[in-house]
Write a structure and sequence with these properties.
The structure is a single chain. This protein is mainly α. The protein has a single domain, classed as ABC transporter involved in vitamin B12 uptake, BtuC (Orthogonal Bundle). The chain contains 15 helices and no strands. α4 packs antiparallel against α12, α4 packs across α13 and α13 crosses α14. The longest helix is centred in the first third of the chain and has 35 residues. It is globular. The N terminus is likely disordered.
Length: about 350
């Protein structure tokens, strides 16, 4: 009996069965995500059903026609669909960034904003909107993207000067976050009028209200690129779980790999923040939920984390735009209301493990 279980055929069967379960699980997750997107689009003042959503999508893809009026067609295709898809892309991207950073930095409280990228993006957006920097060349999104890259470059410089260890990276990120937050507050308070201040602050709290197809395709392209790179380093990320020394012993080029993955996550975070503003706690909470479902192996963890983050932010944005209709709540407020209790729980569990 024991010999049979250890035979190559039995091992292959168990491996195939495990792979089949993983594929089935991902299929279920993608089905839940597709259903969430379809249902979320129907929620709102316009009377639109799930069937109407599919008919509009099929019509614009050339697979048929829709019987909806042009106004309802525009509500689905030009307003709700790009917004909901951008929410899914941002949720997936932020969650993946959080999972990667928590492994690289060996810190369960790390998230995409620990490197100061969000604060830098906020400063860049404020400089463009309030001070008019860049003239007509840079938009709010472009300014946010440039600010995020400048912030990350500063973090890399500071961490290199301080020694380049994971602790130094975190400390440099905290310093950059405080610096750019102070700069943002200074510019807003001294140079902006009341109406501009209100609009900027709303964006800083996270908003998908201005989502368009250009934002969706740009963020999706960066997300796919980042996922490919991170999945290609899945075994390396598994090795980082045992510490830098253990990873180096296993043949991992620690410094180079960490630099590549940090640059990828910073680029993805910059793209997402430039499109949707600062949406907190998604990258902190969702990776822990995914680990509870599938374990720490990154080949399984990263896809599940992406799907979980996408579903979560789709519903968070749906709640944000409908709970006080016709007034809209920044989606970052909704994610924070969910994320803060989860943050406290993570702190408590970390304390107990010590």
């Amino acid at each position: 009996m024991t010999t049979a279980l250890r035979s190559p055929g039995a091992r292959w069967l168990r491996a195939a069965s495990g792979a089949l379960r993983e594929v089935a699980g991902l299929g279920v997750g993608l089905a839940v995500l597709a259903a969430s997107v379809a249902v979320a689009i129907t929620i709102g003042p316009a009377d639109i059903g799930v069937g109407d959503v599919w008919s509009v999508v099929a019509s614009h893809l050339g697979w048929g026609t829709t019987e909806l009026t042009p106004i309802r067609d525009g509500i689905v295709w030009n307003l709700r669909l790009p917004r909901t898809l951008l929410a899914a892309v941002c949720g997936a991207g932020l969650a993946v960034c959080g999972a990667v950073m928590q492994s690289l930095l060996r810190n369960p409280l790390a998230d995409p904003f620990v490197l100061g990228v969000s604060s830098g993006a906020s400063t860049g957006a404020v400089v463009v909107v309030v001070l008019g920097a860049g003239g007509s060349v840079l938009s709010l999104s472009g300014g946010a993207f440039m600010g995020a890259l400048v912030s990350f470059a500063l973090v890399l410089l500071l961490s290199h000067i301080l020694g380049g260890t994971t602790d130094r990276v975190v400390l440099a990120g905290v310093a950059a976050m405080q610096l750019f937050s102070a700069l943002t507050s200074f510019v807003v308070m001294t140079a902006a009028d009341a109406e501009t201040t209100r609009g900027v602050l709303f964006w800083l709290l996270g908003s998908l209200s201005g989502a368009g197809w250009t934002d969706v395709w740009l963020c999706l392209a960066v997300l796919v690129l980042a996922l490919v790179v991170c999945l290609g380093h899945a075994r390396t990320l598994d090795a980082f779980a045992f510490g830098q020394d253990a990873a180096a012993t296993l043949g991992v080029a620690v410094a180079g790999t960490r630099l590549v993955l940090l640059c990828v996550t910073a680029l993805l975070t910059a793209a997402l923040v430039s499109a949707a503003g600062a949406i907190g706690f998604v990258g902190l909470v969702l990776p822990h939920a995914a680990r509870a479902l599938v374990g720490p192996g990154h080949s399984r963890l990263l896809p599940v984390t992406a799907i979980a983050g996408a579903v979560f932010l789709v519903w968070a944005d749906t709640l944000a735009r409908t709970v006080l209709d016709p007034q809209e709540v920044p989606v970052g407020v909704v994610t924070s209301l969910v994320g803060v209790p989860a943050f406290v729980l993570i702190l408590y569990r970390t304390r107990r493990m010590r």
